[in-house]
Amino acid sequence: MQVLVRDNNVDQALRVLKKKMQREGVFREMKARRSYEKPSERRTREKAEAIRRARKAARKQAQREGLLPAPKRVERPARPARPALAQ
């Protein structure tokens, strides 16, 4: 995983790195590896995750077919344009 540091802005690069790690599931895996998980607990967890994924897929499909209302979209104010870099 690689993050570029622009203009010596390490704080911003760190935020980007954390977001990438979050998206990849690194933090979740680190937490899971901290302690031993019994095989029965692992099966139970994986089964619950599969049920959650199936419900989410069914909900999305129902929204696409118009059986359920789509989630309300939150309108965010437009971000100001970034100033051009002086060269």
The parts where pLDDT drops under 50 for at least 5 residues are none
- Kindly name the structural category: mainly alpha
- The secondary-structure element order is HHH
Main sheet attributes: strand count, strand direction, barrel closure: none
Share of residues in strands: under 5%
How many beta-strand runs?
A: 0
- Distance between the amino and carboxyl termini: 30 Å
**How large is the count of helical segments?**
3
* Global outline: flat
Report on the structure:
With 87 residues, this protein is an all-alpha fold. It is 57% helix and 0% strand. The protein is built from three helices and no strands. The two termini are 30 Å apart. The model has no long low-confidence stretch (mean pLDDT 90).
Brief descriptors of the model:
87 residues, mainly alpha, 3 helices
Summarize the structure.
The chain is mainly α and 87 residues long.
Topology diagram in text:
Elements: H1 10-24, H2 26-33, H3 39-65
